[in-house]
Amino acid sequence: MIKSRAYLLLALQLVIFSSSAQDWLQWFGIRPLDDTVSTEKSGIAVIPLLYYTPDTRLAFGAAGVYYFSFKAKKPEQKDARLSYIQFLADYTQNRQLDIWALWNVFTRNEDYLLKGELRYRNFPDRFYGIGNATPRSNEEFYAYDLKSFKYLMLRRIRGELFMGFDLMVSNEYNFKIKENGLLEVGNIIGNRGGVTSGLGFVMTYDDRDNIVNSYKGHLFEISTYFYDKVIGSNFDYINVNLTYQTYFELKPKNVLAVQFVGRYNTSGVPMLDMATVGGEEILRGYARNRFRDRNFTGFQLEYRFPLFWRLGMVTFAGAGDVFKTTNDLSLQRVKYSVGTGLRFVINPAERLNLRFDVGLGREGAHYYLMVTEAF
């Protein structure tokens, strides 16, 4: 499924809805607190992009979106929710290039939800080995190119419940790895890239009141992917993903958010598709690829509350780890994350925030500057 930057782009799209050309602040959606979303049903917008994570450092680029909505044909029916086609190009201080097009389309009456993406990446990264106890002294650099295609079609079963199928194809190539390093001599599957092709089954239930910044509701999603040489894959394995999120508004605008994430693979999974610890979404305080292994299980809690004017604050805590088998898990090695952050409301009508988080883990602190909440 499309992850964090898809929500980032959706959030940027919502900024456009509340913007005008009167001045620079309004162009970025910073308007009075009683602002409401435009009633426009279609349009095109192009905006600059800037963010920071420990995996990328400072990143800059541009994002564009074409948004539209299918109108109901009968008076008793509702218009479909907003659909969008988006484009992103960014470049980071770590010399990572990412060019990405994606779409999220609700058909008329929301009978179907169609999602997909086309992507190219040139991605220098760091590798520390496989397992949840790899030392930082193992660090070595590698780089690769990626081309990928994903297409997801979901059918509405009832209410907010959708089910359907996903096709995923990616090609990792032009690997540059350290001579006699861990990736070269470690007998690691996928250390030279290859084609990964899989078919998946996806079920999602989402009754959140706002997908950008929820006050109440639930999200449950399960997906299973089958990768096999019969459908063109160089690797044979099965991948299962679980996500559950729930939100409680304890008092006005004071929200307790809870998230559980699981990612599980059978043997044969290539190293680039293994589960990892950290990132800007869960277990903030660790670089995304600091630890990797076949499986990951983790959870986090976050308490969100307003301060004054457009400023708010959060505190969060979580725990989780990667592992090959459950015997690899131990309290001595489990990865914890605690932290706090500030929020600045960009678009009050859509609860859209600019966030700055500080996450503390076993190896120190990491900083994040992003648009939208972590989950």
Provide a concise account of the structure shown.
With 375 residues, the protein is mainly beta. Helix content is 6%, strand content 55%.
User: Any low-confidence stretches, pLDDT <50, length ≥5?
Assistant: 1-40
Q: Level of helix content?
A: under 10%
Radius of gyration: 21 Å
Element order, helices and strands?
HHEEEEEEEEHEEEEEEEEEEE
| Topology, number of strands | 19
Report the principal-axis shape: globular
Structural class: mainly beta
What is the class in the CATH system?
Answer: Mainly Beta
Q: What is the percentage of strand-forming residues?
A: over 45%
CATH homolog superfamily:
membrane protein fhac: a member of the omp85/tpsb transporter family
CATH architectural grouping: Beta Barrel
CATH topology value: Porin
Mean pLDDT: 86
- Given the structure, what is the number of helices? 3
Largest sheet: 17 strands, antiparallel
Features:
375 residues, disordered N terminus, mainly beta, 19 strands, Porin
Question: Can you describe this structure?
Answer:
The protein has one domain (4-371): membrane protein fhac: a member of the omp85/tpsb transporter family (Porin). The protein is 6% helix and 55% strand. The chain is built from three helices and 19 strands. The chain has a 17-stranded antiparallel sheet that branches. It has a two-stranded antiparallel sheet with strand order 13-14. Strand 18 and strand 19 (364-371) form a beta hairpin. Mean pLDDT is 86; it is low at 1-40.
